[in-house]
Automatic annotation (TrEMBL):
<protein>
    <recommendedName>
        <fullName>Secreted protein</fullName>
    </recommendedName>
</protein>
<feature type="transmembrane region" description="Helical">
    <location>
        <begin position="6"/>
        <end position="29"/>
    </location>
</feature>
<keyword id="KW-0812">Transmembrane</keyword>
<keyword id="KW-0472">Membrane</keyword>
<keyword id="KW-1133">Transmembrane helix</keyword>
Length: 243
């Protein structure tokens, strides 16, 4: 074997080894990222989860706002990536939580299951569900602050990951002042789940998000206002009492 042939053979072998190592590395990193995503969402391969739909405010019990339907699509892609399946149920479903992952969409005015989750796991949150026109209609109060809805300009939404104990599957709560803000929370979750997983490491959290100028930008421009986990999980009466 002359030098030219040997150099060609060595080059082919080096290319094959390099390509195989690159493929192995990419596969390892992809599988690690998938395992982290599955752990964060509580969606191991082959599992199923619940998507709890609300009713359109002012509509019939079976009506669903198109932005809430878009929120379902945003979340469905995450569920599919994890190799899980989704079962859609109405907000009147009567069942516990923790056995399977759950995505609950809609504020307490349109979703009775949201009411239960706020009462049980986020007792420090108060949402004005009055139907009378006024500045506090739909407002979210938490941590001594009140966040008011300004139609077309400012909308707020709570995005929470809640667990009832070690080993339980999480509930993701997307409780917005409007259907548009519900979709914004779903989009924020889809875009930032890796960052949220690193920041909270499997623990419960509750974030307050602000949707800016929704008349012009829809659900696309969303800002993180604050992490209100501690205040939201502290009963309002206890938070207000003197220390």
């Amino acid at each position: 074997m002359n030098d030219d042939v040997r150099n060609i053979v060595l080059g082919v072998v080096a290319t094959a080894v390099s390509g195989g190592f690159g493929w192995f590395t990419r596969t390892y990193l992809w599988r690690r990222a998938l395992r982290r995503k599955q752990a964060f969402f509580g969606l191991p391969t082959g599992s199923d989860c619940l998507f709890v739909v609300n009713r359109q405010m002012g509509g019939t019990e079976s009506s669903l706002h198109r932005n809430d339907a878009f929120a379902l699509l945003e979340i469905s892609s995450l569920i599919k990536d994890c190799g899980a399946t989704v079962r859609i149920v109405t907000h009147e479903a009567r069942q516990g939580f923790g056995e399977r992952a759950e995505f609950c969409v809609g504020g307490p005015a349109s979703n009775s299951r949201t009411v239960a989750h706020l009462h049980s796991m986020l007792p420090g949150v108060r949402v004005d569900v009055s139907t009378e026109a006024g500045p506090d209609r739909g407002s979210i109060a938490v941590g001594g602050e009140t966040y008011r809805w300004e139609p077309g300009l400012v909308e707020y939404v709570l995005l929470a990951r809640l667990t009832s104990g070690q080993g339980s599957r999480p509930v993701f709560l997307l409780s917005g002042q409007t259907a548009n803000s519900n979709q914004a929370a779903a989009r924020y979750l889809a875009r930032h789940h890796e960052k949220l997983a690193r920041a909270h490491r499997g623990a419960s959290f509750c974030l307050l998000l602000k949707v800016v100028n929704s008349d012009a930008y829809g659900p696309d421009v969303t800002e993180l206002v604050a992490d209100v986990t501690a205040a939201a999980r502290t009963p309002a009466a206890a938070a207000a009492s003197p220390r």
